[in-house]
Design a protein that fits this description.
This protein has 62 residues and is mainly α. It is built from three helices and no strands. The longest helix has 21 residues. It starts with a helix and ends with a helix.
Length: 62
Amino acid sequence: MMGFGIIGILLIVFVLYKTDVFGKKGATYIEEDDDVLEMIKKRYARGEITREEFDSMKRNLS
């Protein structure tokens, strides 16, 4: 019975490691925010959104 507990814990740690729970998730969110900011800058430059909409969207990102 004791051996199953250790194997179970090792299995859980392995699954968490493989699904990148311990990994680089934080950096991904920063990159996504940068991508969104670039997207709204381009939309503003093309005239698709107003200055007020741009400012509002930019504030929502921070």
